[in-house]
Amino acid sequence: MKKGIIVASFGTTYEVTRKLCIESIEKMVEEKYEDYLVLRAFTSEIVRSILKDRDGLNIYNPIGALNRMKELGIKEIFIQSLHIIPGYEYEKIVKQVEDFKKENEGFIISVGKPLLYEDYDFRKVIEGLEAESILGEKPVVFMGHGTEHGSDEAYIKLEKLFADKGCGEVFIGTVEGAKTIGDIIAQLKGRNIKKVMLRPFMLVAGDHAINDMASEDEDSWRNKLLDNGIEAEIGLSGLGEIRAVRDLFLEHLEAVINS
What we know:
By secondary structure, the chain is α/β, with parallel strands linked by helices. Helices cover 46% and strands 17% of the residues. Strands 2-1-3-4 form a four-stranded parallel β-sheet, with helices on both faces. The protein has a four-stranded parallel β-sheet with strand order 6-5-7-8.
């Protein structure tokens, strides 16, 4: 009987970055585990609803994907999270799996860790960014999503590791976390930095990257930097476009499959 893999991300309504950053990982999973049934799941109900209404796309949420596996008689299932940190979205998957297993006997379900979980993960991400020549030439400002969850500390930890490794000047702020673009602007001014590369630190270059980060809107990070005399060159690519990031997600999946 087949085993199953569910590749679960927050999701995005932007087709181009979905193909580059989510489908690219799904294809790697399908190629490596060709004897498994591989399904896509998005954890964002808003994204799923928009895609259904606008594009006629019906994408499973994690519970929907688990139920589909159940219908097909697949009881050994591995879910790989494509989230960046172990925050609320990741915990939601874990809780849904626990509830599903209570209601359905005989299922073996394991959840792979998100991108930044162990110290090893942080090192691999830094190495991957270095290999893509993203770091070093000029100061880099990353926009992470951020969260009120305690895992928001991962962004601060990563920024410190960039500095400890001598990767040039790297700053990580968030949309919804503790460290904001205002904090970064203060840092840049303190170092008299006038030009930066502005990039998303997110799986996809979706709504936050296009609108909150790079747009002409008054409150975008780009314009906030410009208002403070700092020129921003925009890099609109998600982390899912980086080979080392894709490989790390597959390592996390392999770890639960082989455990």
